[in-house]
Design goal:
Layout (H helix, E strand, L loop, with lengths): L19 H5 L6 E2 L23 E3 L3 E4 L5 H19 L11 H23 L5 E4 L4 E4 L8 E4 L5 E3 L13 E4 L7 E3 L7 H12 L15 H10 L18 H11 L2
Antiparallel strand pairs: 1-7, 2-3, 3-4, 4-5, 5-6, 7-8, 8-9
């Protein structure tokens, strides 16, 4: 990801039309409130970010991470291709067993599954992860052929994966509820040990009224970010925090307190 990358995207959703009643009635399991609760520096060391060959790119305006979109159709297609090969070479007695209902149904399902994932591989839309601090919006991939979703961060519903969830293969991972009719979720992993660390980092970074979060990947941008917030009068933070988020130096902290009052 290079500096000329255009990170602004048009907002596609501002509400969860399918889930309003569910949310109001408290029926959304594992919902996380947008609060910064953890100080742990999740991942953003200078060695974790870089040009387009790196998994992450980050500065004071946006973070973009690679989307491993080809993994699902590759593994899915490979699985059904294995079933096809197994059906042909797995001890089937020709020509007798090839005409049995089980063999025919098994072969048709395997072939359709293989064709489905091959089609998806070559026709899937562009999928992006963009966390736009400057404009306060987040872009995540849509489910399967659905287009990317771009929402203001304050409108997004965050949840966690449960012990029996298949999302990400484990429990307590940070999920973003997609505003689609399928009730799908997006695994929003930042390298933390649990959903609370990942959510805290995401909110801290996306709160453009706070200093940039810890991590030497941001050190080159701290001064200009400080001057931007100073010019705006150090507005109050957008999201609550369980701890203080001081400036990079005591002098900057004193200036923020004098001008912004916090």
């Amino acid at each position: 990801m290079q500096e000329e990358f255009i990170y602004q995207r048009k907002i596609t959703h501002t509400q969860y039309r399918h889930g309003d009643k569910k949310v109001k009635n408290g029926g959304l399991k594992g919902r996380l409130h947008p609060i910064i609760t953890d100080k742990k520096n999740v991942f953003l060391r200078i060695s974790d970010v870089g040009e387009k060959e790196a998994y992450y790119f980050a500065n004071d305006k946006f973070i973009s991470s690679a989307v491993l979109s080809k993994i699902t159709p590759t593994w899915g297609g490979g699985f059904f291709l294995f079933l096809i090969i197994f059906a042909i070479t797995g001890g089937v007695k020709f020509p007798h067993e090839i005409t049995t209902p089980f063999f025919i149904i098994f072969s048709i399902i395997s072939l359709l599954g293989f064709l489905f994932f091959v089609t998806y591989y070559f026709t899937m839309p562009l999928k992006e992860n963009i966390f736009n601090r400057e404009d306060g919006i987040i872009t995540i991939p849509g489910f399967m052929w659905y287009k990317n979703i771009t929402m203001p961060v304050e409108k997004i519903i965050f949840t966690m994966s449960g012990p029996s969830s298949l999302q990400g293969g484990s429990a307590f991972r940070l999920l973003i509820e997609r505003p689609d009719m399928l009730y799908t979720k997006y695994d929003c992993f930042f390298g933390g040990e649990n959903c609370y660390q990942d959510l805290s980092f995401l909110l801290w970074y996306m709160d453009k009224n706070r200093p940039l979060p810890p991590g030497d990947a941001f050190d080159a941008y701290r001064e200009q970010d400080f001057e931007r917030r100073k010019a705006a009068g150090f507005p109050k933070p957008l999201f609550p925090s369980h701890f203080d988020t001081p400036e990079a130096t005591p002098e900057q902290q004193a200036e923020r307190k004098r001008i912004g009052g916090w």
